[in-house]
Amino acid sequence: MDAMIQPKFDRPALEAMLSGFRPKLHRYCARMAGSVIDGEDIVQETLIKTLQAVDGSMAVERPEQWLFRIAHNAAQD
To answer: What's the predicted TM-score (pTM) here?
Structure first.
């Protein structure tokens, strides 16, 4: 599921892609946080930061790795 995020993305397509990563992302965040509830907080923060970071001029070659890096950084905050 490594679809590239293209410049001039449409938000529904981005949200659909992110929802596909959500279960795996939640497991990763819960493992890092040590609890399911704290993991959910990290997921929410990650999704917000991701939507804020994406603009119409950027292309992300490996969105899953990029998303998990954002999650890792969010967990460290």
So the answer is: 0.80
Of 36, 12, 49, 30, residue with least CA distance to 67 = 49
Quick: pLDDT tens for 20-44: 999 999 999 999 999 999 999 999 9
The token pair that represents 25 in the structure block: 């992302």
Q: Measured between alpha carbons, how far apart are the two ends of the chain, in Å?
A: 27
Q: Which of 10, 18, 4, 6 is nearest to 57 (CA)?
A: 6
Q: Which one has a higher pLDDT value, 49 or 55?
A: 49
Which position has the token pair 């040590």? Answer: 34
H helix runs in 1-77, sequence order: 11-33, 36-53, 63-76
